[in-house]
FAD/NAD(P)-binding domain-containing protein (Rhizodiscina lignyota), 414 residues
Amino acid sequence: MAIDTSKNETPVLIIGAGPVGLFLALRLSQSGVPVTVIEANSGLDDSTKALTHMPTIYPDFKRAGILDDVLNAAGELRSTSAYFRRTSDKSVITKLPIPPGKPGPCLLPQGHFCKILLKHSQRAGAQVLFGHRFESVRAQEGSRVHVDVSSDDGVKKTFDARFLVAADGGKSAVRKAAGIEFEGETLPAQLVATDLYYPFEKFGWSATDANFFADPQDYGLITPIDGKGLWRCSFGLQLNKDSGEGSRKEGLSMNEIESAVPRKFEKMLPSEPGKKPEGWKLVQIAPYKAQQLCAKTMRKRSVVLVGDAAHLTNPYAGMGLNTGIFDASSLADALVSIVQRDASDSLLDKWSDARRNMFLKVVDPMSRAAYWAFQDPDTDSLPDRHPMFKAMKAGPNAKPPELGTDVSKFVEFK
């Protein structure tokens, strides 16, 4: 492998060009902090993945100058609601109330969101290098971190940065290299997200709203993805009750998952009376684990964790991606204060504590409550148990859970 001996210096090096890494790069670049993003793939991941943006994140989008682009890209899905249904007969338990004059959640495929972020971050001056893979943290000297990276064209490079940010997902190589452990548990279920085409509107379903299904076995979610006929159907598959933690982490095989898809569609998709759903077209299957995990720390010397590299949660409260964006937004404020205003690096320790507390005390319990609420056989009481409904029942002026962090109150100057 050839070695690039040129000097690759940057105040901030981000590993991972997903939504959280790119949002952080955008905010830093807009503030005048030079940043380089390293991404192992040859281009953006254009898969649908996470879809939901809660209105609480809109002020941060507006601050970054992307809110209009996000809402315009979402089109008819820019303000949605959700139906809660019984899987047994598809009947509606209730509909999530949206306060008058306020927007509902926005649905936008993650690949589309990342394209918006890439365009804006590069326009602001961020350097994004695709086809570059993080290899190791070779050495740390003083307040600098040295990172070895290999490129697709066979060149090894070393980057010298003041801060290394891990935005490389739940299996983060950076987190592992830094020796930071996850704490928490893997829940006893295999979660599966499928994308499909099916004429839901033919059966009277709203083309712009999500549908959550309550059932002890056949719980899940069906939601439009792009407003053009592509839908997401997500569900859980029970693991063997006698399986240990090792089996939970391993999950089901792809053959087992693929064989379960028609059975789940039969349970969840609407159809003519007495008939099975017909004519669905499966586009993709994406299995993932039901995990509630958080890193022991989100900062270790020059290494900082954000998004899924820092914490993982199930999707049934719609808080995963939004929490990651709030990580990036608050971290951007902290790094700008340190790099440009000579604030103490201890600000990152306070930021780390605040973000971990936000996950452990707000995100984790709410997402767990949402996950188990859909599996309770008492479906009639779902509105009394689901955290989204509890928040709505507090009244039109009730504030949603605060997921952001104001780092200005932590700033200390050297």
